[in-house]
Amino acid sequence: MKVHNFNAGPSVLPNEVLYKASKALIDYDGTGMSILEIGHRTEYFMAVMDEARSLARELMQLDDDFEVLFLHGGASTQFMQVPMNLLDSGETAAYIDTGVWSNKAIKEAKLFGYVDVIASSKEGGYNYIPKQFNIPGQAKYLHITSNNTIYGTQWHEMPKTDLPIVVDMSSDILSRQMDYNQFSLIFAGVQKNMGAAGATMVAIRKSLLGKVGRKIPTMLDYQQHIENGSMLNTPPVFAVYISMLTLRWLKSQGGLAGIEKINAKKAALLYDEIDHNPLFRGTAVKEDRSLMNVCFVMDKPELEEEFLKFCKKEDIVGIRGHRTVGGFRASIYNALPYESVEVMVEAMKYFSLKKV
Ligand SMILES: *Cc1c(COP(=O)(O)O)cnc(C)c1O
């Protein structure tokens, strides 16, 4: 039996992806071998890698300057790999601080060059996206976090600049239509919105590379990964396979146009309940609310544990807020069904009728 899974990551995957993967675990495509037993340089796995890379490119409609890679190490490794490849010592990169994940990126970038934190929403407890900032023209790139998983804020309009934009899209990758070509480097741990933990998707402009003087270790050099077709060493084969299946599923939902409609409908239903139910209150400012992570609290915090217990009884799981902020967080990623949001909203209505 399946529950209503609002986990923030790793998180819910489409049923048909899990079903297909479970069969591939025993016998991949009639080969008599598990997907886990196939060499990564066989035609079987090469086809999986190629399809995953090309589906990601197709869904985001990336131009020819882009290469799509599936790497190891999670989004957190990108926090250091980005500046190692793009920022020479003595040079400056601009970062916008919208929470924990931005801060981790800032910390790593300081190991390689200067960091100019041009805006921060820290004083508001990261409950909004900064709107006023000057982007210094001499910076090498601008780094932003498109969706702030912990606080439930999201950039709905991207900053306008001639600088290359590097974006951490770990928690809203492929969730909406956008001009993805406005970016120069897009990265995302795939475990939130496009697959299983173990792989990180990086879409990078080739024209961005080869401009720093330092020697880059092979495994951290984007150029080498590109030249080797994202097969510099053994890739995380199962995680890439799950991503490929999830990307196929996404395409079958009408691509980003299709999923964006469903995501907007889910978020509207849940935020509407939060705004009208007297027991609950949203924590992010309305105009910056995330369509992926819905964060809210109760005005009577003493009821929070009771509500969590009630939800568990209703098969609603994963809604406890991040340990650093408390309250609740319902992650409503691409694969979370609309029906799960309906069940959640019913639970909120019922609980508040009993309590108010
Ligand atoms: C989860 C998350 C990360 C960390 O991802 P890992 O793959 O665990 O390293 C980074 N950035 C954002 C925005 C996230 O949501």
Detail the topology: elements first, then pairings:
Blueprint: E1 4-5, H1 15-26, H2 43-60, E2 66-71, H3 74-86, E3 92-97, H4 100-109, E4 114-120, E5 142-145, E6 147-148, E7 153-154, E8 165-168, E9 185-189, E10 200-205, H5 222-227, H6 237-252, H7 255-276, E11 280-282, E12 293-298, H8 304-313, E13 316-317, E14 328-331, H9 338-355
Helix pairs in contact: 1-6, 2-6, 3-4, 7-9
The CATH homologous superfamily of the largest domain corresponds to: Type I PLP-dependent aspartate aminotransferase-like (Major domain)
Percent strand equals: 15-25%
Named CATH topology of the largest domain: Aspartate Aminotransferase, domain 2
Number of helices, where a helix is a run of at least 4 consecutive DSSP H or I residues:
9
Q: What ligand molecules are bound, each kind once?
A: pyridoxal-5'-phosphate
Q: At the first level of CATH, what is the class of the largest domain?
A: Alpha Beta
CATH hierarchy: architecture of the largest domain:
3-Layer(aba) Sandwich
Poorly predicted runs: none
Query: Measured on Cα atoms, how large is the radius of gyration?
Result: 21 Å
Strand order of the largest sheet: 2-10-9-8-5-3-4
Helical content class: 25-40%
The rough form would be described as globular
Major sheet attributes: 7 strands, mixed
Mean pLDDT: 97
Write down the secondary-structure element order.
EHHEHEHEEEEEEEHHHEEHEEH
Structural class: alpha/beta
Distance between the termini: 33 Å
Number of domains: 2
Main location: cytoplasm
Catalytic activity: O-phospho-L-serine + 2-oxoglutarate = 3-phosphooxypyruvate + L-glutamate; 4-(phosphooxy)-L-threonine + 2-oxoglutarate = (R)-3-hydroxy-2-oxo-4-phosphooxybutanoate + L-glutamate
Family: Belongs to the class-V pyridoxal-phosphate-dependent aminotransferase family. SerC subfamily.
InterPro entries: Aminotrans_V_dom, Pser_aminoTfrase, PyrdxlP-dep_Trfase, PyrdxlP-dep_Trfase_major, PyrdxlP-dep_Trfase_small
